[in-house]
Automatic annotation (TrEMBL):
Source species taxonomy: Bacteria, Candidatus Roizmaniibacteriota
Subcellular location: Cytoplasm
CDD domains xrefs: FtsZ_type1 (cd02201)
Source superkingdom: Bacteria
Keyword GTP-binding on entry: yes
Residue sites binding GTP per the record: 135-137, 166, 170, 214
Residue ranges of every copy of the Tubulin/FtsZ 2-layer sandwich domain listed in the record: 234-351
One Gene Ontology biological process: protein polymerization
Molecular function GO labels: GTP binding; GTPase activity
Protein name, UniProt field: Cell division protein FtsZ
Keywords from the UniProt entry: Cell cycle, Cell division, Cytoplasm, GTP-binding, Nucleotide-binding, Septation
Cited PANTHER family: CELL DIVISION PROTEIN FTSZ-RELATED (PTHR30314), MITOCHONDRIAL DIVISION PROTEIN FSZA (PTHR30314:SF3)
Length: 453
């Protein structure tokens, strides 16, 4: 009996110890999961234009959540099945659009702030896409950006500007909306719709033309997503992206390019650094992030050439780069580039002659008007001779400045004016005599010559 009791006790003790170990392991597992943070990226299209862009991009991109947000219930029905739908501002618009009224779009977003805030919960990076110039996009997009920033997400805005033929009203709404957006965005990329004519033929159908822009945007976003998610030989993660995007309202250049063949590096760099959709390049960029993807045959010289070419745009820039190897690329090479802090403002400062020429012109005109009236009251006798000989525009402009001191003198003393007039008359008579003397001498010389003959 004692032996059985001892065996039972040992058996029960083993069971308890095994249960305790299992509990410890179960407690440790969630701790390891918490240490590995999965970056969450969400693309939100605001308004009709932004929704159509996101709907087309969603078909080609993975690992990213897509949301189409609009006040127009009819437009939301046309959204892609790969996207989630958010209708806001129903009380304000009654399920219709904003009718190119940005104030209505802004009010619609403010009224449903709590609903919009849910889109940004747990999101690390939000890509806000909209076609500015309409009521919903121009009015609601700034509110979306503000709510996203308050939620703690990094917000990168990608916006298109209206065509010139759409009128000045749309252009005004777009520019006004951009000013508000910059205050809440970490980074912003601007694509004027007018630049579409650089990459398509004028006979291209409208729907196909917009699809061309959407495909390019899709490729650029794919490059950014791959930088964050895919491991590499020299790895880039979201911490690097956060470092580059940290800031407020910085103009950003995002582009991806691919090439193959013996001159693949030269060709890919040309396409990478000159995007036809943007009106600016990476010149003056403060922070640069790029990733090179190729097969295992990529050489050190190729990596050096790419890095040197990009860094030459600004040697003081903070640069982070990565290298990924994919055997499916074979002889291809792909580069994805994200440059922050570049833009139009750096170009005129870099030393363009157009900015320097207009500055000295007003400086030259002002001293002429100031110095000439001071020196000319002493040379009053030369006025009639100048007026007789020439009638240039410079003399006409100088004439009023010369009359000002005379008016001041007449007001002070009439006697001084009479003396001045008499002096002028005497000087004129003396000049006339001087002008006539050479004529007399010539006549005498002619008479003497005739007499001698």
């Amino acid at each position: 009996m004692r032996l059985r009791m001892e065996k039972d006790i040992k058996f029960m003790a083993k069971k308890k110890s095994s249960k305790i170990k299992k509990k410890v392991k179960a407690e440790k597992k969630p701790e390891s999961k918490e240490l590995v943070h999965r970056t969450r990226i969400r693309v939100i299209g605001v308004g009709g234009g932004g929704g159509s862009i996101v709907s087309e991009i969603a078909r080609n991109l993975k690992r990213v959540d897509f949301v189409v947000a609009n006040t127009d219930a009819k437009a939301l029905k046309e959204a892609s099945k790969y996207t989630k739908i958010l209708q806001f501002g129903q009380e304000t618009t009654g399920g219709l659009g904003c009718g190119m009224n940005a104030k209505i779009g802004q009010k619609a977003a403010k009224d449903d702030k709590a609903k919009i805030a849910k889109l940004f919960r747990g999101i690390d990076l939000c890509l806000l896409v909209s076609s500015l110039g309409g009521g919903t996009g121009s009015g609601a997009a700034p509110e979306f950006a503000k709510i996203g920033r308050e939620a703690g997400a990094m917000v990168f805005g990608i916006f298109t500007l209206p065509f010139k033929f759409e009128g000045g009203k749309k252009s005004y709404l777009a520019k006004n909306s951009l000013k508000k957006l910059i205050q809440s965005l970490n980074a912003v990329s601007i694509i004027p719709n007018e630049n579409i004519f650089k990459i398509i033929d004028k006979k291209t159908p409208l729907k196909e033309a917009f699809s061309t822009i959407n495909r390019r945007l899709s490729e650029n976003l794919r490059g950014l997503v791959e930088m964050i998610y895919l491991p590499g030989l020299i790895n880039i993660d979201f911490a690097d992206v956060r470092t580059i995007l940290d800031g407020r309202g910085k103009l950003t250049y995002l582009n991806s390019a691919e090439s193959q063949g013996p001159n693949r590096v030269d060709e890919v760099l040309k396409e990478l650094l000159k995007s036809p959709l943007n009106e600016y390049n990476i010149e003056g960029a403060e922070k640069i992030l790029f990733n090179i993807t190729s097969s295992q045959n990529i050489g050190m010289k190729e990596v050096e050439q790419v890095s040197k070419t990009i860094s030459d745009f600004n040697r003081r820039a903070k640069i982070i780069f990565g290298v990924s190897q994919d055997n499916d690329y074979k002889d291809k090479i792909r580069i994805s580039l994200l440059a922050v802090g570049c833009g139009r403002e750096d170009r005129p400062k870099a030393g363009s002659p157009k900015a320097k020429k207009p500055q000295p012109l007003p400086q030259r005109e002002k001293p002429k008007k100031k110095h000439k009236p001071k020196a000319r009251p002493k040379k009053k006798t030369k006025k009639p001779s100048l007026n007789k000989k020439s009638a240039s525009t410079s003399v006409l402009t100088e004439a009023p400045s010369e009359e000002e001191p005379d008016r001041v003198l007449t007001r002070r003393n009439a006697l001084d004016l009479r003396k001045a007039v008499e002096e002028v008359e005497e000087e004129m008579e003396a000049k006339e005599k001087k002008w006539e003397i050479p004529a007399f001498l010539r006549r005498k010389a002619k008479n003497n010559e005739q007499a001698s003959k």
